[in-house]
Write a structure and sequence with these properties.
The structure holds 2 protein chains of 2 kinds.
Chain A lengths: L4 H10 L1 H33 L6 E6 L10 E2 H8 L14 E11 L8 E8 L1 H7 L2 E2 L12 E5 H6 L8 E4 L2 E10 L8 E5 H7 L5 E2 L1 E5 L3 H13 L5 E5 H7 L5 H32 L1 H9 L4 H27 L6 E6 L4 E6 L4 H28 L2 H6 L2
Parallel strand pairs in A: 4-9, 6-8
Antiparallel strand pairs in A: 1-11, 1-12, 2-10, 3-4, 3-11, 5-8, 6-9, 7-8, 13-14
Helix pairs in contact in A: 1-11, 2-9, 2-11, 2-12, 9-12, 11-12
Chain B lengths: L6 H8 L3 H29 L6 H4 L1 E6 L7 E2 L2 H6 L4 E9 L3 E2 L11 E4 L1 H7 L7 H9 L3 E5 H7 L6 E5 L6 E10 L8 E4 H11 L6 E2 L1 E6 L5 H12 L6 E5 H6 L8 H30 L1 H9 L4 H34 L16 H28 L2 H6 L3
Classes of the chains: A alpha+beta, B alpha+beta.
């Protein structure tokens, strides 16, 4: 027969100082883990939301990032007449040649400067991404040295605000608006007109990449194959979704770091939990003896102490999730090696992350409770009863 | 009686419940080890490792806007005329792919340099003289750090093919030398002229620019002046520059990892708090068990002050032992990291400096004192009769 859980609960309440201290210790460990998962989840959300399933990013064969790819304008001219490319309302092909470069601007996190992606594109490119300009601003005008900034850029870079001027290329550019590209990674970019930015970087003949949209999902694969197989082009077309999905790994160094810290802290916490449980066993030697006299088996005593340890850890786990909750929605940035620039994203404390935190706490509790529970179960009835 | 006379009593009491003391010390050791590692990491990432005399005179110069933008070669002559400048050389990032770019393992920095200048600027790079000469002589020659060569199993004579991405050319390099250097960075250097030849053959762009200039100052004291003079000189040109010491340049990449400073501080805070909790918890358990004993001590004539001191001493003793072991463990981990495959090369050179060791001992001391304070005061204040009557 099992010992009622109420017995364990009451024990935890009676020794409330110890319980709270141990639980908070476990809680802090769990909080680090949950925050780490929130970081990865946030980054994943930003990249998952980027890209249209019908679109392909076309880069030079062998390049795996837009920044170090080159596609000639000649190749673009060949590409854009491809019949499987969709057309917009103005009957223009939905193929956008784009130039990427990187500028360094001071951000709120690093006043000494952080890299930002500048994307030079045409109106078609803007349309293909479905970005909206925020009230009070407007898109860059053709023939003007004007740029628009993504909403994350506007939030994090004091110099990239509407009305201000940003210096790159051969001169200054006026910020005329802030755009909103949903949850996507484009919010971390600065956009300007292709024909304005290109000449500043001597890029009249080449672009970095071309974004194309297929007429429908049935023709997507055929379009991809025909672009990849055309030897005149020398390009690789990759689904836009897949391209951005890969970049989630830019958070990997922080993710691994956070995970390592959480694991090391967990070792410390499980020692602490073990201490607490050993003390509980020592203090209740007489009770254990009494329980045995009443007929509870060694197994149920062991189970009871293990459950108590798990309960303690569970409190810690829940506490840890609560501690980590305020981080939800906090914006931060991380450098992406694919774009050599910063991607801003929001921490996202997900139910999955919290569940992982609780499971983690239970593992700590199980490790911490196992040996003390074993020693409780091994106690001889008479010696246990005789202990003070 | 002098406090030192109580030391045997304190030691004995600290380890009377051996299992608990060991668990507490273990827990403190692991947490302090983590804290020490965080401090060491903070130090190398935000203050850099110790500067060698050679490093102290090295200055990196790049385009103000970003590394992706180039500076004209014509700047070299102008920089040379700045007072305090001893030598100027250049360094062009090549990028490109080695074997398969999709595997992170195959990524390492590759720079085009002037072979004759490289070892002058980096006297800490140790290389046999004949290999150095071969690098200067052979246009397709390249040198790599020993650490990098070991990673790929390269021997001198290895053929290394780098397919360009930023530059439309493929380099067929011949590994003519391996150098050894203390930081164990993974880098490959090849001849700048060979890159220029390749680009000419491809008929694309002439290499009349470089992504970085490497400037040597004649003394470390002149570095700030040289840095300012160069940036002022080019401030209003079409190619404004950002010039900084090599160390500051290396640290500027740390921002790339995200807001690491805040993460380190937040985690450090959480860890310290955890240590405090663990230590306080153990001590209050240990004091609670000994209430009766404290009563006996009092009847023997120990004053509340002495008892308070002895209990504080116990807390400090356990915390300090945990702290010292934690530092030792951290140093062990740092040694392991030295040869670990970490993309962030600074992490490899972190170690437990005397300052960090002192700080962690101080933290241990404080943790011991603070966590023992409440239970010790409680025990010291408890009336004798009450203590003697206590069961539990």
């Amino acid at each position: 027969m099992a010992i009622p859980i109420a017995y364990n609960l009451r024990n935890l309440v009676v020794r409330k100082t110890t319980t709270v201290m141990t639980a908070v210790g476990i809680g802090l460990t769990v909080a680090v883990l949950v925050a780490d998962m929130a970081l990865v989840e946030g980054l994943r959300t930003a990249f998952k939301a980027t890209g249209n399933p019908l679109q392909l990013v076309v880069m030079r064969k062998g390049s795996n990032a837009e920044l170090n790819s080159t596609v000639t304008r000649e190749a673009f001219q060949i590409m854009k007449v491809e019949p499987r490319i969709a057309v917009n309302d103005a009957r223009e092909p939905m193929a956008s040649p784009e130039i990427l470069t990187v500028v360094n601007l001071p951000s709120v996190d690093s006043p000494t400067g952080m890299n930002l992606t500048v994307r030079a594109l045409s109106q078609v490119g803007v349309e293909m991404r479905g970005a909206k300009i925020q009230p009070g601003g407007r898109w860059f005008q053709s023939g003007q040295r004007e740029i628009v900034v993504g909403k994350s850029v506007a939030k994090r870079y004091p110099n990239a605000q509407p009305g201000k001027r940003v210096r790159f290329g051969r001169g200054e550019w006026e910020v005329v608006g802030v755009f909103d590209a949903g949850d996507s990674a484009f919010n971390s970019e600065i956009w300007g007109e292709l024909n304005q930015i290109g000449p500043d970087f001597n890029r009249q003949d080449t672009v970095n990449s071309v974004l194309v949209r297929a007429t429908d999902s049935a023709s997507l694969q055929a379009l991809k194959n025909s672009l990849n197989d055309d030897r005149r082009l020398g390009v690789d077309a990759m689904p836009e979704r897949e391209y951005y999905d890969q970049q989630t790994s830019s958070g990997a160094p922080l993710q691994i770091f956070g995970l390592l810290v959480a694991v090391i802290m967990a070792v410390g916490s499980s020692f602490a939990a073990m201490n607490t449980m050993y003390a509980a066993v020592a203090r209740r030697a007489k009770e254990i003896g009494t329980l045995r006299v009443l007929g509870f088996s060694r197994g149920s005593i062991m189970l009871s102490f293990l459950i108590e340890s798990l309960l303690l850890a569970l409190i810690g786990g829940v506490l840890g999730c609560l501690l980590a909750l305020p981080i939800n929605g906090v914006t931060t940035g991380v450098g992406s090696f694919a774009t050599f620039s910063e991607i801003a994203f929001d921490f996202r404390v997900s139910p999955g992350g919290m569940l992982a935190g609780i499971i983690f706490a239970l593992v700590v509790g199980a490790i911490g409770g196992l040996f003390p529970a074993g020693s409780a179960a091994r106690k001889e009835i008479l010696t246990a009863l005789r202990e003070i | 009686m002098k406090a030192i006379n109580y030391l045997p009593l304190i030691t004995k009491n600290s380890f009377r419940n051996r299992r608990r003391s060991l668990l507490t010390i273990g827990s403190l050791m692991v947490s302090l080890c983590l804290l020490v590692m965080l401090m060491a990491m903070y130090k190398v990432l935000f203050y850099g490792s110790e500067q060698t005399p050679a490093q102290a005179v090295r200055i990196m110069m790049r385009h103000k806007v970003s590394l992706a933008q180039a500076l004209p070669l014509s700047y070299e002559g102008k920089i040379r005329q700045v007072p305090g400048v001893k030598a100027v050389s250049l360094r062009q990032w090549f990028g490109g792919t080695y074997r398969d770019a999709r595997e992170m393992r195959n990524f390492f920095p590759r720079f085009a340099v002037r072979p004759a200048d490289l070892f002058e600027a980096y006297p800490e790079y140790v290389i046999p003289e004949e290999q150095k000469q071969a690098f200067v002589r052979e246009r397709t020659g390249c040198v790599a750090s020993k650490h990098l060569a070991e990673k790929f199993g390269w021997q001198v004579g290895e053929r290394i093919t780098l397919v360009g991405d930023i530059f439309p050319t493929t380099l067929e390099l011949n590994l003519v030398g391996l150098y050894d250097e203390p930081n164990k960075f993974d880098v490959l250097f090849f001849n700048w002229d060979y890159l220029r030849d390749g680009l000419k053959a491809a008929g694309t762009l002439d290499l009349d620019f470089t992504s970085q200039y490497l400037v040597l100052a004649d003394s470390p004291d002149n570095v700030p002046r040289v840095v300012k003079a160069i940036d002022d000189m080019f401030d209003n040109s079409p190619f404004p520059t950002k010039t900084e010491s090599e160390q500051a340049f290396a640290l500027s990449f740390v921002g790339f990892l995200g807001n690491l400073k805040m993460f380190l501080l937040a985690i450090g805070g959480a860890v310290t708090f955890t240590i405090l909790l663990v230590s306080a918890n153990t001590l209050s358990m240990s004091v609670r068990e000994r209430i009766r004993e404290v009563g006996v001590l009092k009847t023997l004539g120990f004053t509340p002050g002495t008892i308070f001191g002895i209990l504080l001493g116990e807390g400090v003793m356990i915390a300090i032992v945990g702290g010292v072991l934690g530092c030792a463990l951290a140093e062990g981990f740092c040694m392991m990291l030295r040869s670990a495959p970490i993309p962030i090369q600074q992490i490899r050179v972190m170690n437990v400096t005397p300052l960090i060791f002192m700080i962690s001992l101080l933290i241990s001391l404080l943790v011991g004192l603070i966590s023992a304070m409440v239970p010790a005061a409680g025990a010291a204040r408890r009336p004798i009769l009450d203590s003697l009557r206590h069961t539990g």
